[in-house]
Amino acid sequence: MVDSAVVRKWVLDANDGIISTTGIVQGFAGAGANDETVLFAAMTLMITGGLSLAGAAYAEAAQDRAAELAIIEEEERQLALSPDEERAEVRDHYVRRGLDPELADQVADQLMRSDPLGASLEVEYGMLEGAAPATKPWGVAFRGFFAFVSGALPLTAAVVFLPDDWRLPISLLVVIVSLTVTGLVSARAGTGHPVKAVARSITIGLFIAVLAYLAGNIFEVIDQFIPQIDIDGDG
């Protein structure tokens, strides 16, 4: 079964790819850029955006992993110095969870015999993986990269294959479909009402698209009134 937290993170990263690419494509289109320029901008954003997100995700995950390793090391030290105190903490944890003291004693004895480090880490820090840190920096980085690319790719592909006259309406349709898919996936993972999730994502995506297109138009208008600089000095 896929972890809902992983799905939520994928949706966020994919939405980032969708919305970022939407802003670039609509902004360049609004500024009157040619097909090659729009395509180059979309592909560049897809690659660099994915790499940037992957790098940030890796750095964050590596820091989390280092913290987990430090906790594991400290817990190993505590088990070596005072195993009885660690056993008592495990027992008290299950008493607080509702077991009667005698049963909690039996549970603590069995857990401390089979996996004392895992039991201590679980009851004190909620680390279900025990001595193996759950955070995998490279896995998180690759997941972030492919999530961003999966969000950016449909719109980038639309830029490649669509003629200029159809680019604006069809690209908006691609954005709506993409955000609908991520919204439904998010809701399926138990992260909210599907209609609200989809409506929220589409509203944000279309707002960014319209704003970027208008900004591109404004830039084009301003550019027409800026005197062209003669680099060669020929007047």
How many domains, as an integer? Answer: 1
The number of distinct helices, counting runs of at least 4 residues, comes to 8
| First-residue to last-residue Cα separation | 70 Å
How do the SSEs run, as a string of H and E? Answer: HHHHHHHH
Rg value: 26 Å
Topology overview:
Elements: H1 4-30, H2 35-81, H3 83-96, H4 101-114, H5 116-125, H6 137-161, H7 164-188, H8 194-225
How would you describe this protein?
This protein has 235 residues and is mainly alpha-helical. The protein has helices at residues 4-30, 35-81, 83-96, 101-114, 116-125, 137-161, 164-188, 194-225. It contains 8 helices and no strands. Helix 1 packs antiparallel against helix 2 (35-81), helix 2 packs across helix 3 and helix 2 packs antiparallel against helix 6 (137-161). It has one domain (1-225). The N and C termini lie far apart (70 Å). Mean pLDDT is 82; it is low at 229-233.
Question: Which key terms come to mind for this protein?
Answer:
235 residues, mainly alpha, 8 helices, 0% strand
How is this structure best summarized?
By secondary structure, the chain is mainly α.
